[in-house]
Amino acid sequence: MNRPFNFSAGPAAIPEEVLRQAAAEMLDWHGSGMGVMEMSHRGKEFIAIYEQAEADLRELLAVPPEFRILFMQGGGVAENAIVPMNLSRAATVDFVVTGAWSQKSRKEALKYAAEVHTAASGEDSHFTSIPDPASWQLSRGASYVHLCSNETIHGVEFHELPDLRALGSDAPLVVDFSSNVASRPVDWSRVGLAFGGAQKNLGPAGLTLVVVREDLLGHALPICPSAFDYAIVAEHRSMYNTPPTWGIYIAGLTFQWLLRQREGEATGIAAMERRNIAKAERLYGYIDQSQFYVNQVAPHCRSRMNIPFLLRDEARNDAFLAGARERGLLQLKGHKSVGGMRASLYNAMPMEGVEALIAYMREFEQHHA
Ligand SMILES: *Cc1c(COP(=O)(O)O)cnc(C)c1O
């Protein structure tokens, strides 16, 4: 069976090998007589799944020992509240606004932080560019600085995380990496906390990953729900309440799939990164040489994961999408705030999917130009 290529921005395609393994183990996990969804989260079977997933993720993303890995619920949107409830200490929080997601995070933080300061914004450019870090107006004594490392809607990505100390700020950096987690290595020396929903690159919706430096734990505001207090979650190894067991299991299978990837001499995340660079270059290269399609994001911050593009003649959008669906190219419609198309090229999208998309785009252009 040949599955279509699914370009969804999220929930998104999951590697076929992972889906097949999960299907094979659905009714009976490793001879236990139970499926993973039916197991006690405190039983030895699930504890083994959990410990393996955590260890594999630590290896995969080279997470240093001073960081704790938390498997939570609530998604990226809940983290917009959970982060300020845990880290703001009722002081000023700095925001770098580079698109719809960081804008949304900023708005939610207004409820919890004593003051929210916009240190930089790409709004003037309609979020087609990231302001140069040298121009950011960082506050003195901020409790943290928030940014979104990949803006899923606007297709804008940080290709290097800022070194806040070099920019004159002592604040920890908080990164929303929901849509580029595990697509590239993370420079943990520049990060205080990173969070992401699983449904873009790690597995099903319902699991939220938080990686937090230990010294940031234990400062939650009194209003913070216990189940969302990072110190409590860390102390209970993500089992203060029932964790999203199915999500952890599928993410665990995905981590193992990622660890098996090879590209030349590169393995794991390095292999994945090479492949993601190649896929994105191929699609941007095609769009840029075309008179028919256009991507408006500045080349220095174009996302490898989410590639929005417009047809110069917007009247052809519906025909483009219908033809794509017929050819097994799914979920290419752009976000309503940007319009046009969006091709999400997460880890599970092979180069063949990108080639199939380009072949279709070329054919469509030839018919309609
Ligand atoms: C998808 C996404 C979110 C939202 O995640 P939910 O699971 O819907 O809460 C947050 N931030 C970014 C960057 C995203 O791509």
UniProtKB/TrEMBL annotation:
Domain of life the protein comes from: Bacteria
N6-(pyridoxal phosphate)lysine PTM sites in chain numbering: 200
Cofactor list: pyridoxal 5'-phosphate
Subcellular location: Cytoplasm
Protein name according to UniProt: Phosphoserine aminotransferase
One Pfam family, short name: Aminotran_5
Residues noted as binding L-glutamate in the record, renumbered to the chain: 42
InterPro entries in the cross-refs: Aminotrans_V_dom, Aminotrans_V_PyrdxlP_BS, Pser_aminoTfrase, PyrdxlP-dep_Trfase, PyrdxlP-dep_Trfase_major, PyrdxlP-dep_Trfase_small
GO BP of this protein: L-serine biosynthetic process; pyridoxine biosynthetic process
Subunit structure comment from the entry: Homodimer.
Annotated family: Belongs to the class-V pyridoxal-phosphate-dependent aminotransferase family. SerC subfamily.
NCBIfam families reported in the protein's UniProt record: PRK05355.1 (NF003764), serC_1 (TIGR01364)
Pathway per the UniProt entry: Amino-acid biosynthesis; L-serine biosynthesis; L-serine from 3-phospho-D-glycerate: step 2/3; Cofactor biosynthesis; pyridoxine 5'-phosphate biosynthesis; pyridoxine 5'-phosphate from D-erythrose 4-phosphate: step 3/5
This enzyme's EC code(s): 2.6.1.52
Note describing how the cofactor binds: Binds 1 pyridoxal phosphate per subunit.
Major enzyme class: transferase
Gene Ontology terms: cellular component: cytoplasm
Name of the encoding gene: serC
One GO MF term attached to the UniProt entry: O-phospho-L-serine:2-oxoglutarate aminotransferase activity
